[in-house]
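Postdoc handover notes: sequence design on the structure in folder B. Input tokens:
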């Protein structure tokens, strides 16, 4: 049993929560598992329940029925509810044809949804079971207005990858967490899973809320069934970074994507790089994927200047040919075609503080955060990749606040304590696999 840690103080305007926090415990409302972590779903529900005027939500995916039921309840109370989803996840799963999930990942997702919903364990989802467990069917039945990223008349953006909500245009909830079983609690068919490692922030600021509302309105246009005036992907107008000053904090907000010809310094990846460039002592990264060479070059520059750099990447992405974790480790690995990334720049002085954390089966490191000098946090839905910068609908925050940073620092240390670092046995097997296939040394 892990030790329970004392809760850290929260900033009054920016609160931070983690579904694997060791300073709190809760009971998963679906599997009834008592476990460590902040109940991110309950925090979202409480924020929705606090709404008196409006709730605007842009999330890649929503399959948690208790959130759906809360939205319906507030809508019936007169609160204006609007929802934007990624088109791959914008239809009730219980109404999709059985053959609509050809790949293994989609089938696994559906099997877990069925397992959560099959109350009588007969292997079939009845109409009643669907009506109470399929979140999007619940919203559809209640006629909650929903659009996805095909509302602009296209087949969709790269990804509508946001994970944010604006309540009464006064409060913003955002972070890395998808509003799903696997994003928060864990998988039904993998009892040991506890959900992908994620963060949720709650910001009480009408100025921050205004920026998120403006981005939401660009995507929403005139809503469902209207003109194709929604804006998703890179056709959006340029949106520069904006600074908001709160007591004790400076918050920089920026949204992507950007046109491919946008100067790097004006993009979200440019904001990440410029923030890292200010590091004087330490940079700690916890990232789902890290593939942007420009950001990696900035990290190398600071490392050469004596700044301590540690990085944790999800195991599924850490050792792919395009992963900047490889640069930090001083090696290159070819892709499946036996070709090397042309702009890779392996570090001449490799780091032994790069690797992946040990997580329960079924769980991923889904974070997208950095802690700089234990005082500044970079966080949001934005993965550190070219696709996030130029294709996906994303948001990013740079928060300069030591109180907020302490929460992220603790989460990083939790993951780092059980991490596999340096040239791990798993990495060595990957190298040997490519040596056998492609010949030569990695």
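Designed sequence:
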């Amino acid at each position: 049993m892990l030790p329970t840690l004392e809760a850290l103080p929260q900033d009054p305007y920016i609160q931070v929560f983690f579904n694997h926090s060791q300073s709190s415990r809760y009971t998963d409302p679906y599997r009834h598992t008592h476990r460590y972590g902040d109940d991110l779903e309950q925090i979202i529900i409480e924020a929705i329940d606090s709404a008196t005027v409006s709730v605007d939500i842009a999330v890649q995916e929503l399959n948690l029925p208790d959130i759906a039921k809360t939205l319906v309840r507030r809508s019936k109370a007169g609160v204006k509810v609007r929802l934007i989803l990624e088109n791959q996840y914008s239809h009730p799963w219980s109404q999709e044809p059985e053959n609509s999930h050809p790949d293994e990942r989609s089938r696994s997702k559906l099997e877990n949804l069925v397992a959560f919903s099959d109350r009588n364990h007969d292997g079939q989802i009845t109409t009643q079971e669907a009506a109470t467990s399929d979140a999007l069917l619940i919203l559809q039945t209640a006629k909650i207005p929903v659009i996805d990223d095909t509302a602009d008349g296209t087949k969709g953006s790269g990804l509508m990858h946001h994970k944010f909500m604006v309540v009464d245009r006064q409060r913003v909830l955002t972070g890395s967490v998808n509003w799903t079983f696997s994003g928060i609690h864990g998988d039904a068919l993998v009892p040991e899973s506890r959900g992908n490692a994620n963060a949720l922030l709650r910001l009480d600021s009408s100025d921050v809320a205004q920026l998120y509302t403006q981005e939401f309105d660009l995507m929403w246009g005139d809503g469902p069934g209207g003109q194709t005036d929604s804006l998703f992907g890179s056709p959006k107008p340029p949106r520069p970074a904006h600074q908001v000053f709160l007591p004790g904090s400076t918050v920089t907000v920026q949204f992507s994507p950007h046109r491919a010809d946008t100067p790097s310094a004006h993009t979200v990846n440019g904001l990440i790089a410029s923030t890292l460039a200010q590091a004087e002592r330490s940079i700690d990264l916890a990232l789902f994927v890290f593939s942007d060479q420009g950001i990696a070059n900035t990290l190398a520059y600071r490392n050469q200047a004596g700044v301590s750099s540690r990085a944790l990447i999800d195991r599924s992405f850490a050792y792919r040919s395009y992963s900047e974790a490889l640069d930090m480790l001083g090696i290159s690995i070819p892709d499946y075609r036996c070709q090397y990334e042309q702009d890779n720049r392996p570090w001449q002085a490799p780091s032994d503080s790069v690797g992946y954390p040990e997580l329960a089966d079924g769980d991923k490191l889904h974070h997208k955060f950095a802690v700089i000098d234990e005082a500044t946090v970079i966080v949001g839905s934005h993965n550190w990749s070219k696709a996030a910068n130029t294709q996906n609908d994303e948001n990013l925050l740079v928060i300069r606040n030591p109180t907020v940073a302490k929460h992220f620092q603790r989460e990083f240390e939790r993951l780092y304590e059980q991490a596999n670092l340096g040239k791990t046995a798993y990495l060595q097997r990957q190298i040997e696999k490519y040596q056998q296939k492609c010949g030569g040394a990695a």
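Context for whoever picks this up: The chain is about 30% helix and 20% strand. Don't rerun without checking with the PI first.
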